[in-house]
Amino acid sequence: MASDPTHHSRRVRRLRQAMFVTALALLVLVLLWSSFGSGTWFDARVTSGPAQAEMIDAVMRGKNQQGQPYILRAQVLRKRPETKSTYDMQAPDIEIGTRRAKDLIQAQAESGVYDQQMQTITLSGTVELRQTGNRTIRAPHVDFNMQNGDFMVQGPLQMESPARRITADLLNSTAENKTHEFTNGVITLFAKEQK
Amino acid sequence: MRALVFVLLGLFFAGSATAQSPTRFATSPDAPIEVSGQTIIVQELKNRALLNGDTKLLQGDLSMTATKMTIIFDPENGDQAQDVFANHRVSVVDVKGQTSQADKAHYNIRAETLELTGNVRIENRNPDTQLGTAQSQRMIINMRDGTSQMYSDATSGRARIELKP
User: Fold this and answer.
1) Which residues of A touch B29 (CB under 8 A)?
2) How far is it, in rounded angstroms, from Cα B110 to Cα B105?
3) Alpha-carbon distance B41 to B52, whole Å?
4) How many CA atoms does the CB half-sphere of A70 hold within 13 Å?
5) What percent of chain A has pLDDT over 90?
6) Reported pTM
7) Residue A162 pLDDT > 90
8) Is the dihedral of CA B29, B93, B159, B117 positive or negative?
9) Does residue A15 register a pLDDT over 80?
10) Chain A interface, best mutation among B36, B64, B68, B143, by max A CB count within 10 A
11) Is ipTM over 0.85?
12) Taking Cα atoms as reference points, which of A2, A16, A189 lies closest to residue B81?
C-alpha cells in the first residue's frame, strides 16, 4: 500500500517539532542544574579579543558545596586559555555566606583569580574584606576557600572594628569555629569603653 | 652606712594582713591598651584571645609582660575587652622605674584594677621615693589613681615593706 506523501511530511514536521521541544527542555534542565551547582554567569557582556574572550561586568551567583550562597562580580573577567575553569578578574567584588548562616563576608580588591573547580578565590592589590560584626580587614593578599569559608591573609594586615584593631603579618581564619590566628609581630589596640 | 628601715606590717585580721603601699604607680587609665605577642588566637565563640610568646601589655605609662596572656571579651560586644589575665613571670613596670613581679595578674578593665597574685614583689629604683622593696601574696593597683593595696594570707605570713630613710 502506497503511503500518503502529505501525511508523511506532516509526520516529519511533528517529529522535528518534538525534537526541538525536547532539545529546548534539555537545555533548560542543564541550565537549572548548573545554577544549583557551581554557578551560572549572567548579566555579562561578552566581548571577543584576538586571543581570548572576556566578560564585562560579570556577575555569578551560586552555592558552594555546603549550600551557602555566594555572589561574585568582576568588572572584567577572562578565562585563562590554558585552564578549564580558572578566571582572572579585574576589580572583583564578592559576597560569601559562611556555614553559620548569619555570617556574611564581603570583599573587594584590585584583582583576583577565581578557580571554579577548586572553589578558591585569590584577591590581590588593596584588598578590603568586611565581616559580620562591623569588622574590616585590609591587606595586600587574601586566599579564600569558598567551600568552607576559611581564608588566609598575608600582610601587613589590619583587622579593625570600633572596639579593637589588630595588626599582623599573617592571619589564618577558620569559619567553622570562628577562630582567627594572627602571627608575627601582632599588636592589639583596645578603645577605652565609653562610660 | 646602709640605712634602711624595715617595717614589718603585722596587721592581722582573721589570718590576713593589709598594707597601703607608700608609693603610687604611674597609670594612664584612659589611654588605649596595646597587647602584643608572637601569636594571638582570637576564639570568637569563647569570647577570648590567647596570646603566646613574649606577650606585652602597654597602657600609657604602665606596661606588663608575661609568658602568656588571655583577653576576655564582652559577650554582648565581642570586640570589647573586659579582662586581661597574665600568667607566668609577670612583670609590671611604670615609667618612674617601679617594677612589680608576680606569678599571675588580672587586669579588670571596667573596674580599673590590676591585681597581682603569688609571690608579689615591688622594687623601686626611683631615688626620689621612699619605698625600697615590698613583698606580699597579693597586691591590687588602682589604675585610676595609681595607689595600691598589699595583702597577705594566713599561709604566707605578713606583708613586708622596706623603706628608705
Assistant:
1) 192
2) 15
3) 9
4) 34
5) 34
6) 0.76
7) no
8) positive
9) yes
10) B36
11) no
12) A189
- Tell whether the model's pLDDT for residue A165 goes beyond 80: yes
Q: Is A132 near chain B, with CB under 8 Å?
A: no
pLDDT value at B83 more than 50: yes
Q: What ranges do the domains of chain A cover?
A: 36-189
- Closest by CA position to B139, among listed B80, B82, B97, B98: B98
Half-sphere exposure of A195 (CA within 13 A, CB side): 7
pLDDT at residue A100, rounded to an integer = 56
Please say whether the structural domain B10-163 has been given the CATH code 2.60.450.10. Answer: yes
Q: List the domain boundaries for chain B.
A: 10-163
Dist. CA A21–CA B144, nearest whole Å: 81
3-state secondary structure of A167: strand
Across the interface, which of A177, A182, A192 has its CB nearest the CB of B40? A182
Q: B81 and A192: CB-CB below 8 Å?
A: no
Put simply, the chain B residues between 104 and 133 with a CB less than 8 A from any chain A CB are: 109-110
Lowest mean pLDDT segment, chosen from A21-25, B106-110, B155-159: B155-159
Query: Which band of pLDDT confidence, cut at 50, 70 and 90, is reported for residue A89?
Result: very high
Beta-carbon contacts below 8 Å between A and B: 75
* Contacts with B36 from chain A: Cβ below 8 Å: 185-188
Task: State the average pLDDT over residues A23-31.
Answer: 74
CATH topology of domain A36-189: lipopolysaccharide transport protein A fold (2.60.450)
